[in-house]
Structure formats: structure tokens, C-alpha cells
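User: Show me a protein chain along with its predicted structure.
Assistant: Here is one chain, sequence first, then C-alpha cells.
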Amino acid sequence: MTIETSNRYDFIVTGASGDVGRHLVPALARRGGRILAVDPNPDSLRTLYEGVTSVAIADYEALADEIDCDTLIHLAAGHDDQARSPDDFAAWIGEQFNRMNGRRFINIASIRSLDDDDNSPQAVSEAVAQRRIAEFVGDRLDQVHIGHLHSKGYYGEKLGFLNGTGAIGAMAFALFKALKPTTSVPSLADYAAGAANMLPVPGILTDDLLRSRIYRTVTRMLDIAVAVGILLVLMPLLAILWVAIRADSPGPAIFKQSRIGKAQAAFTLYKFRTMKRDTANVGTHEVGVSAVTKIGKFLRATKLDELPQAINLLRGEMTLVGPRPCLFSQRELIDAREAVGVFSLKPGITGYAQIREIDMSRPQELAVSDYTYMKLQSLALNLRIIIQTGLGRGSGDRVVTTPA
């Protein structure tokens, strides 16, 4: 397995000895095409790909020779080349790709690099590499973030103790998938070998968790438990708030409004009324601050106005964590969400966008955040969002500061 000069490969895969490379390269080889596997220590690759005739081997310096490719799949993210910093290494890889006149640069990183709170060396170096590579390859960059890698009978390096355990391992991994985002090797190989119809920004390829019976069951049980707890345990508080709202301003204590739910189906949203009775039926960010009642300011600040949505939880129209439900009049947000498939989810009482302070006054940014949550959703992320919401992070839609 040696490289030939003046040769063009269908795929060049950097970092080919890592966990992703060791599984992606053979999967690509089964789909056809000539592959060049690159690693700083080519000898380590010869054992991995021995007998795979469609795979050639080279070190990084060979990329500066007369080698061309259609698609470069970058897995190294600055870790494989100790002589260069992540920034310099990313720039060098981008330069070689431009020299090859490649068509598609697939930069694969972990989902950790999407987390603004993750300052680990891996997350930081991957973020640096992505920005630097983009400077060189422009719109040919296909950025893909993946979760915990797995395939049939293989559950990843961190869960290696499950490999070869048969049905027991499969059951244990099904539980793990509900806790953390995962990505299958076949889906990654299919995407890399397919047409360059890039994923929506920020480019996340994970398994569809809505297919997980464990995830659906646990989230539904949690929704029901929380709803029953609110309606029974907090009944005295609900009664006090009801009286306070009625005494503060004329009108009903409960505000009802038609919203868009899963699959764009209409449902009636219930909240404690925080605005004056004759306020226009528009998005909160379109309403003047003078429309908010005195008790309404307190309810919105403490999020107590959301408590009646326990009814929506019981009905299955909403879930605890998900995209905030929008109005039928918010056409820009509807179109943006529809374009990235967000309406496959139930709307939530709180959500990923909410704790990031993104509200409906920024529809395009909100749709991107909703898409990100859809691809990263897990029981662990949902718990994190619920805790951060309970600690006061995030707020409801802002009202305009000028009088209505």
C-alpha cells in the first residue's frame, strides 16, 4: 500500500489512525473509490488497513507532493502534528487542499466544540481549526459535528467494555443513547460519500433520538410527573396568583392563545395573564412595556406565568424542554424552523435557545438554536437546561422598551 505520484484520490482522510478514522476508512472503502489514509506514523496504518487494496497510506508531508483529491476528510483537528500549533496546522491543511483543487473539505469535529462553556483542549483546538480552515477553503468547507461514534456491535472507545457482550451490550447502549448524542459509522460514511448537500449550519450529524423508545418514555413520564406536581402540590400558589392577577387589573387570570405545535398543528397555550386585557394578540417582543401589568412584571421575572402550561404537558401538546411555541403570524420564524425540520419536535416550556437568551425577536438565530437542540437533545442536556432555567438563566421574550 504505497502512494503513486501525480495521482488523484476520491478521498484523503487525515488522522486516519484515530477512533473515527479506523472505522470511517473501511466503511468508505466498502462504498467504493480510492482512499489515501494519512497519519504522522504510516506504519501504524499498515496494520489497520492491511488487505484493503483501495486504501493507500502516507504521512502528512506527502500531501505537499503531486497528490490531488476530490474530497478531503479532516479528522486531525491539530492533534496529529506536534510540530505545528492547531492554528498553523489547520492553515497548512487548507493550503494543501487549495493546491489540490479539491471539491469538498469535510472537517469533522466533536459536538463538544459547539458548547460555549467547554474550554477543554479538544473543544478549543477544534474550534480554532474550523475557523482557520474556513479562511482557506471558503464555501467548499463542509463542517460536520458528530456525537459518540458507534456501529453494529461496536460502542466506542469509552464504552469498549460493552463490545462483544451481545444483547446485554445493545440494551446498555440503548440507554446510553438516551443520555448522550451518538453518531453511527454508516451514517457518517454515507454522508461523506454522498452528494455535497451540506447540513444546515452548524452542521450536526447525530442519530435521531426521537426513534429511541427509552428517550420518549422517560421524557413523557417526566412531563406527566411535573404537570401533576404543579397542579396538585402547587395548587395553593396557583390560587394565590389567580386572585392577585384578578385584583391587579380587569380580565381573566388565565391567558389562552393559539400556538403552533408539533407538525405545525394548532393548540391552545395556557399561561397566567401578564398583560392588560386589550393588548394586541402578537408576539411579546412586539408589545410595549406599558402593556405589562404590575403583577405581570413579577410573574415574567420569576417565570411563574408559565405554570398553567402544566395543562399542555398533561395533554401531550408540550414537553418540558423544546423550542418555544410561536404564533401563526410569525411567518419568518415559521419558515426558518420549517427549513431545518424543527417542527418534528414538541414545543417546550423552556429550551436551549431560552437559556442562551435568544428570543423570538431574532427569528433566524432562534431557528438555528432550535435546530442545534434538535440534533443534540438528550436526557442529560434536558436536565442541564431545566437546572439552568431553575437557577434563573434565560428569560421570556422581551417587550419593547418604548410605551405601546
